[in-house]
Amino acid sequence: MAVATFNRVTPKIVERLCNAVGGDCVLVDDDSLTLHASDETEDLVFRPDVVVVPKTAEAIADIMRIATEYRIPVTPRGAGTGLSGGALPVHGGIVLSTKGLNRILEIDRENLFAVVEPGVITQVFQEAVEAVGLFYPVDPASRGSCFLGGNLAECAGGPRAVKYGVTKDFVTGIEAVLPDGSLVRHGGKLLKNVTGYNLTQLIVGSEGTLAIITKIYLRLIPLPKHRILLLVPFNSLEEPARAVPAIMHAGVVPSVLEFMERDAVEITERHLGKSFPHADAVAHLMIELDGNDEGVIQREAERVAEIVLEHGAADVLVADTDAKMGELWAMRRAFGAAVKSESIYKEEDTVVPRNQLVALLIGVKEIASRYGLRTVCYGHAGDGNLHVNILKMDMPEERWKTALDPAIREIFALTVKLGGLISGEHGIGYVQKNYMPIASTEQELSLMRAIKHAFDPLGILNPGKLFPTTEDQKL
Ligand code: LAC
Ligand code: ZN
Prior knowledge:
Number of helices: 16
Bound molecules: lactic acid, zinc ion
Oligomer: single chain
Number of strands: 18
Low-confidence stretches: none
Shape: globular
């Protein structure tokens, strides 16, 4: 793929943008540029030339037509909670924020569907559907601030995927603006659709590189009436990882099956100033069961308790009130922020078949110790999705720089050897793109490049992401 050349945003282009979408939607002040120069990814800053905050799909189309005319890079941005640098304007240009498109357009209770705009906060949406007895189970840790559009772009997962699936499993239709400013619609309130290629699913998870999502059709399900949360401490890393496939094998499908090692818990205790039961255990599983029949859930919880005890659990703690469950969830959701506050770090988002979790964990620890690196692991064990945080701590800068990349390469090579891949839910974005060849063949990459070219022949939409840097590129 030829390297795209871009132009800078001139005052004339700013004026064109203002005329097209209204001056109040075009921001060039220092604070706005700084705010949109970074996201939740560790320590990266790329300032855009201008930030636009359109309120309609038509305004987005106008912006894209101007960007196409002048060959200006455009980086779509939701709430900026991404962990792979997907929303960073690495080539400058325009950051296009979707926060102005924030309406829940419809909750259709007859068909169990919702139609929403991309700038709706995930938790706001969850609460709106729960208020009418419905359920949108996708529950990323950042749900209080992330946007549904960003969840689609990255195909966000979260802890409930083990039973309910990830974002893509709920998206049945989409409206989006292509880089040339044309509007594409695909799918709708349809549970089945094999009418040609699935353009909806192609755009979901495409990390803002193919199109800008402007309308989303989401499938809903009835809200389960009851849930129980179990917290299970273990005195080794291997035992909880071994218990995970055993639970699934017993015919119980928990709605959550999370793994966390001691360091994640301890760091979070310090960060929040709160304490976690059995914080000194080597690792925990956090297991949620949900459903409509309280008796069934109780029996499933008892069965799960038997299995984990057979696998070496030191105890089984039951959180059966909203307050107790809320406390545990608040801790769990804070892991990412807590790791961030502890040290400079780099987060990996490995995913393997769930019965390979033990091998992955043991391998990660072995690789890290060879490089003298500290790792803190936690994640969605039911999905085989392990977040491996590599912490710098007080390692001298030079050693950190030399050790990090080869260690990551070894971890990813192991992941692939175990039948896994290098991102389960955070995306490739900017920070993982040069590791893509470890996971994807040249043939796969060239098919992906051809798809990118079909959507975005000028390469102006979210450039510098997903594809490995070639020799003639700087970013
Ligand atoms: C979590 C985010 C980091 O699982 O994916 O907390
Ligand atoms: Zn996660």
